[in-house]
């Protein structure tokens, strides 16, 4: 009997069809995956926002701010210290001095508001992983996660989000404008575990009086979601995916410091790590993450 089977031509046609389908489906699947990352990230920030309000209710309407009253943006903190004075270097006599990081501010929600470290990781943020106490080698027997003061020895690698700079004159309180942006993905103008800072000169808003285009406006977005936008947490605890970084009060840019003394600014100036760096006014959103290393010199992107 003559056996029936595929000819070589038929096999080649089937392989070509499969390859064509793969070429069509793979980009679509990758797109769905990125949209899922975006949704999970937004859910994380929404949970963080609700926890912030709970925290503020217990701490005189102030959102999480680590350290003492006069502590500066500096670090690192001693994450496994026995008490807060040692952790932040705050004076026990009068509560003055000290230093704290952006991540240690977020960690207060783990310590006092029962937020899990997993909630601070955006899947689109390359190089960031959920912090687990078991990965640390310097803890003593009986030390628990709520005993810590930051996300371990390398906290920058365990937190994907930037936070409105809470130190200095314009510290966050819930009495401010509800439309003020307070958290988002990492600031694109500061180095991150995923790579170097963006080129600020490539960015230009596409709102009047600026002459930018859609392409130049998107250059100011966070990198976590392919530069298409960022999930932004506002002071009233709602979260939205903003297509432009200038989405806070008066079109203020959430990732730059305003050039104006009293208003927001869609362009602003590029942020840099400094112990004296701060927002220009109460309408100036300034979302930053910690630098790769804390030094006395001012850090800027390339």
Give a structural overview.
This protein is an alpha+beta fold and 302 residues long. 24% of the residues lie in helices and 8% in strands. The strands form two sheets. The protein has a five-stranded antiparallel beta sheet, with helices on one face. The chain has a two-stranded parallel ribbon with strand order 1-2. It is globular. The chain starts with 7 loop residues before the first helix and ends in a 14-residue tail after the last strand.
The termini sit apart by: 75 Å
SS-based class: alpha+beta
What share of the residues lie within helices? 10-25%
Mean pLDDT: 90
Quick overview of this protein structure:
This protein is of the alpha+beta class and 302 residues long.
Summarize the topology.
Layout: H1 8-58, E1 72-73, H2 84-88, E2 99-100, H3 102-112, E3 161-164, E4 181-185, H4 214-218, E5 230-234, E6 239-242, E7 287-288
Parallel strand pairs: 1-2
Antiparallel strand pairs: 3-4, 3-7, 4-5, 5-6
List keywords for this structure.
single chain, 302 residues, 8% strand, disordered C terminus, membrane, Type II secretion system protein, transmembrane, N_methyl_site
């Amino acid at each position: 009997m003559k056996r029936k089977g595929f000819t070589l031509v038929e096999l080649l046609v089937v392989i070509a069809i499969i390859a064509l389908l793969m070429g069509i489906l793979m980009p679509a699947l990758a797109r769905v995956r990125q949209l899922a990352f975006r949704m999970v990230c937004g859910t994380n920030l929404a949970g963080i926002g609700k926890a912030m309000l709970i925290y503020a209710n217990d701490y005189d309407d102030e959102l999480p701010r680590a350290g003492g009253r006069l502590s500066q943006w500096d670090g690192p903190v001693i994450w496994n210290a026995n008490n807060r004075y040692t952790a932040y270097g705050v004076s026990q006599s009068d509560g003055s001095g000290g230093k704290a990081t952006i991540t240690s501010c977020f960690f207060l929600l783990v310590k006092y508001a029962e937020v899990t470290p997993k909630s601070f990781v955006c899947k689109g943020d390359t190089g960031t992983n959920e912090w687990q106490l078991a990965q640390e080698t310097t803890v003593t027997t009986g030390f628990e996660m709520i005993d810590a003061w930051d996300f371990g020895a390398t906290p920058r690698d365990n937190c994907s989000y930037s936070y409105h700079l809470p130190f200095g004159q314009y510290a966050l309180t819930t009495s401010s404008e509800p439309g003020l942006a307070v958290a988002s993905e990492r600031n694109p103008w500061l180095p991150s575990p995923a790579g170097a800072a963006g080129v600020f000169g490539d960015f230009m808003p596409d709102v009047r009086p600026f002459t930018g285009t859609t392409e130049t406006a998107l250059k100011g977005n966070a990198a976590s979601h392919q530069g298409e936008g960022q999930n932004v947490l506002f002071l009233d605890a709602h979260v939205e995916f903003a297509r432009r970084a200038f989405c806070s009060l008066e079109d203020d840019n959430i990732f730059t410091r305003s050039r104006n003394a009293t208003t927001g600014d869609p362009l602003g100036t590029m942020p840099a790590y400094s112990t004296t760096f701060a927002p220009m006014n109460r309408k100036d959103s300034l979302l930053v993450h910690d630098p790769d290393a804390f030094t006395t010199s001012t850090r800027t992107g390339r």
